[in-house]
Fold this protein.
Amino acid sequence: MSVDIERTQGGRSTVRDMLFDAERRLNAVGIPSPAADAAWIVSHALGIPRNRLILQDDITDEQRVHVEQLLTQRLSRVPLQHLLGSTGFRRIDVEVGPGVFIPRPETELVAEAAIRELREQLVGSRIGVDLCAGSGAIAISLGLEVENSRIHAVEFSDDAINWTQRNVEAHEEVLTAAGSRVEVIHDDAEHVADSGRPLARLAGQVSVVVSNPPYIPDAMIPREIEVRDHEPKMALYGGEDGLNVVRGVLRTAAILLAPGGLLVIEHADVQGTDAGMRGVPGITKAYTADFEIASITGIPAGTPVFTEVADRIDLNGLPRFTIARRV
């Protein structure tokens, strides 16, 4: 029996052994951050915070099996966040899993721009809309970080909306304490403000519209295996040039935003100002009111809807999101 146990353990009898072995194996298959992933997996299996791993070196057979199960999945490139069941975003943790896009650190800057604008509004005007809300990370952050705000989280995917609702409900108590409310709306971001649809009532009243829409061209294959194999396709691909949903978001923002209201929209690092009309700043500057938009907003047909269009970089110095104001 002792020989079998030793063969199963492979010499991994302590937490330090498990960490070393996990990091070595993760590194061998090209995981970008093997040491961090190993620490997350082991701490999750042991049910302790990462910063307490150095205080514990004993590990039970049951915990060792749990580590191996998680490690095996990570080695096959299942996203770490799916294994942990959640991910951090700004000041919160949100639950994630199959069917919903995992929020990235870069998107925290997108949320920051929307939060700063919303804070500048009078209490009764702190109305925000998060289009393509996914996990709800942006919408919840707006509600928590801007007191007395009303946020509307719009998500179209039948799978993702369950995660949106779950995360909003999990943060309901702290949202209420902040005097804020997040309403989850199961609808198409491109048409949610049309006549008879859920947000038509807010036409011309919204201070901030923020969105992290799908923006990858249909023919492009993501470099990251985790993204290619595990992220929902609906959250990734945006048509032939990647900008189909972006154009729909511009239309919805044109209807919803109050005059001078702010649009914040994320894009790929190759869709910034230098991309011209194949980039988000380019199509935002060129977006003009059609007769329907004109009838709703009062913006003359054929004239630009957005002004003060500017692009912003992320912490890596790459183009990451576009901001613009409704005329």
